[in-house]
Model the fold of this input.
Amino acid sequence: MTTQQEPSFRESVDLMFNRAVGLMDLPPGLEQKIRVCNATYTVRFGVRLRGEIQTFTGYRSVHSEHMEPVKGGIRYAIGVNQDEVEALAALMTYKCALVETPFGGSKGGLCIDPRQYEEHELELITRRFAYELAKRDLIHPSQNVPAPDMGTGEREMAWIADQYARMNTTDINARACVTGKPPHAGGIAGRVEATGRGVQYALREFFRHPEDVAKAGLSGKLDGKRVIVQGLGNVGFHAAKFLTSEDGARVTGIIERDGALVDEAGLDVEAVHRWIAKHGGVTGYADAAHVDDGALVLENECDILIPAALEGVINLTNADRIKAPLIIEAANGPVTAGADDVLRDKGTVIIPDMYANAGGVTVSYFEWVKNLSHIRFGRMQRRQEESRHQLVVDELERLSDDMGKAWSLSPDFKNKYLRGADELELVRSGLDDTMRIAYQAMREVWHGRDDVTDLRMAAYIVAIDRVAASYRAKGL
Ligand code: GLU
Done:
């Protein structure tokens, strides 16, 4: 974890922001307006549990309202604090701007270890927290739209949506008050996998540019690359699963709370995931070597390091020993500002959090749009698309018959071509497009300016520029 001489998470985000605005030409005062967090609401509420009233502390921070609603997850973790939610809210502002989701930045958190509570207790706590936030419009389809984060998922989002609906019985858009809901409660296909999928699409896009790959001292494609993942939660698991099963990468290390597993030949990601779900950690998993001090594995040789757990895990105490030439920040803030300086000097390429993990909020955006339009994606077009494709296939087959069966279409081609896109395919396509376009925006700045030497600065510059433009358009 972070050491004494290191700034807090929020200060770390501010330091990176300051480095970026130092390279920009913003009107006086605007820089300060963008950097500061607009408001942070702290709530303490009691819930009667196990025969006593237990008091919980929660936060919802709104960083920037240049666009509304503001957006960002709700985290359940024992270490949640104001500094952390403010840092995360700021990152949401920049993330949304970078991937062009029309939201300001927000974040929430509840100080709780969810593993200590039964499901019905968590429901009571979540509903009460949601009530406290909703009555102040800190959950609202057009003001503030939460989503899952560490320690929360579809289940909590369904409770929040239902709580909001109970409090706003005539709001036809009530479902759009939160994203990351399960499919039967107004969710969207592909939201659970979205952040991990986004990490995969980000890496695919990076590897489409040989000059960028060369900057990391790597070559070739994702196929065969050795990957170390820290945290096999929702994001880390999906990223590791897709990279191994679809891109030919090899996961040589998985770091968890209770140690790490290593295997140069490649770990079976799904098997490890099943093991963790059953046993609560990696300890006892027989098909790989176990390292007790898991954090040491961050320092192992590999091609791509994916920190997908907590903030601040790569800091001044270990930055100089990190050997991975390419780091993709699936977590928010895994590299401190100090470590970022050390790694930049070493030539490590970092694909920054605000881009790398933006898949979650991107698909949240699709879900919100779906909720507001009250119709699933593809419902109107799918069969029409299929019948138009059928026309082409029929015509080609007729021509072939006329020419004495000169050719035939392969059954595989026909199957693929004839099938209209369902919601999941449309969501993946929209996410892929978003990740490619955002990368290209960062890349233009990274390659186009001599004073920008890393992707993080490029990402900040693109994002801040967009937030500034929107403030200017408002006359501020
Ligand atoms: N908690 C996720 C993040 O940090 C998702 C936020 C959202 O979907 O609004 O990006």
